[in-house]
Amino acid sequence: MEYRHIGVTPVAGALGAEIAGVDLRQQPSDAVIAEIRHAWLQYLVLFFRDQPLTSEQYLAFARRIAEPVEYPMLKGLDGYPLIVPVIKLPQERVNFGGLWHSDTAYLETPPIGAMLLAREVPPVGGDTLFANMYLAYESLSDGLRRILDGLHAVNSSAKADVTKTREDRLAEGGAKLAADAVLNAVHPVVRTHPETGRKLLYVNGGHTVRFESMTEDESVPLLHYLFAHLCRPEFTCRLRWQPGTLALWDNRCSQHNPINDYHGHERVMHRISLGADRPV
Predict the structure, then answer these.
(1) Residue 253 and which of 15, 50, 136, 277 are 20 to 30 A apart at CA?
(2) Catalytic: which of 193, 256, 267, 270?
(3) pLDDT at 74 over 90
């Protein structure tokens, strides 16, 4: 596609592009939105700089991409329940979601995408890495792809590595569910993107606990190999945040990992989850 209404600059060979020439505070035309959605499917994650949006403007743009949905664990902003604050305070040592993951894979219908808008960032650090799950699948051997194509995996909100990153947020009274609530879902290990038709790897270290019909001990060796494989450097890109930076990622075919390297500083992000579908 030739982009006529926006500027699109890839940031890495694997995925990611910066979008220029659009002020999201204004109501983008249908032609601009169509090009943004096309770039989103092509590059998996888009970065918009210098977008100091109000909550109303932020939600309005989100609705042009997909219908916003509530996050299952956390409470949204007062008056804006669909906008969830993601905050790391200066005294905290563990950041929220600080490992490679696809958002809320423990839901039967996970969100198709998400937006994150930087409100306050540390002077250095706090970058986010993204990884391309099409490439993670396509780079596997033919033999392993044949094995994985027929498997399903159990995903849980109670997996220890990710649960510990929620403890402070839940303890502050922002929880929508009890701290000990557990959500589980079974999804294909290899899913097909409903809009591009491409196959991709759909397990993640944050939520996937075992293969269906196998024990955790039996599943661990192959899962650990896949978790290490899917974040190989050549599958990734890196975003350095600035106040007003907005990231839009496709949760179906990418994973992300916020880097926890800014102790002693506050980081405030506003998140919107987009849409929902059942992985197939």
Answers:
(1) 50
(2) 256
(3) no
